[in-house]
Write a structure and sequence with these properties.
Elements: E1 3-6, H1 10-20, H2 26-45, E2 50-56, E3 61-67, E4 70-77, H3 84-90, E5 95-96, E6 98-103, E7 110-116, E8 126-131, E9 134-135, H4 139-150, E10 156-159, E11 162-163, H5 165-174, H6 177-180, E12 183-187, E13 189-190, E14 193-194, E15 200-201, H7 207-212
Parallel strand pairs: 1-12, 4-5, 4-6, 4-8, 8-10, 9-11, 10-12, 11-13
Antiparallel strand pairs: 2-3, 6-7, 14-15
The protein binds 1-O-pyrophosphono-5-O-phosphono-alpha-D-ribofuranose and uracil (URA).
Amino acid sequence: MVNYTIIEHPLVSHYLTVLRNKNTLKPEFKEALDRISYLLAGYVYSNLKTDEVTVQTPLKKCKGRTIKHNVVLLPILRAGLGLLQGFSALLPNVSISHMGLYRDEESLRPIKYYFKFPDVKHKENLKVIILDPMVATGGSSIFTIEYLLNMGIKDINLVSLLCAPEGINAIDKRFNNIQKKYIKILTCSVDEKLNDKGYIVPGLGDAGDRLFGT
Ligand code: PRP
Ligand code: URA
């Protein structure tokens, strides 16, 4: 099975409930998503590799550590932008790639309209963190993961708020065991199911529309 972790934290549960509430308006929705993004970033960044360095304090030299990983954040447009705040604020030097996808309303297949990725020479310490609040059919995530695997990237984290079981199963089916070693999914909840329009149930509705007021 593809590696996935459900992040348990009282604040994540609290803000997720704010996001699920249909009466939560746009400013509060954005604020709750921002706050969750810090909590998720703290979790995902806890696995970053570090290098030992020497630092001179005002009193004496001592050992310290600096981040060794080269991190690229990859929000899937549009709703993935809603998870960017915490990840970019805690690691301001990260590069931010963008994948522009929307789901065709009939087929639910992802349609690509934009992709930009930094020119990375060395891939050994490269970690790509895909940000997308919703993994519904899994089509958008699969498309993006495939793209990255084809670029030779071997450390791919997919960070989401909500996954449908159908989405996780589709990701699991799509990739072979070697590819799965390169993929980690982190989510706040695996919900009940997808409805016949491809929405996660109970879910939170359309993440992009609620975030951007469209
Ligand atoms: C939503 C969401 C995911 C995708 C998930 O994007 O942000 O990217 O659907 O669905 P899937 O797992 O079935 O592919 P949407 O296409 O609505 O675009 P938007 O973010 O621009 O609103
Ligand atoms: N995209 C969303 O924004 N919400 C869903 O429930 C499914 C896909």
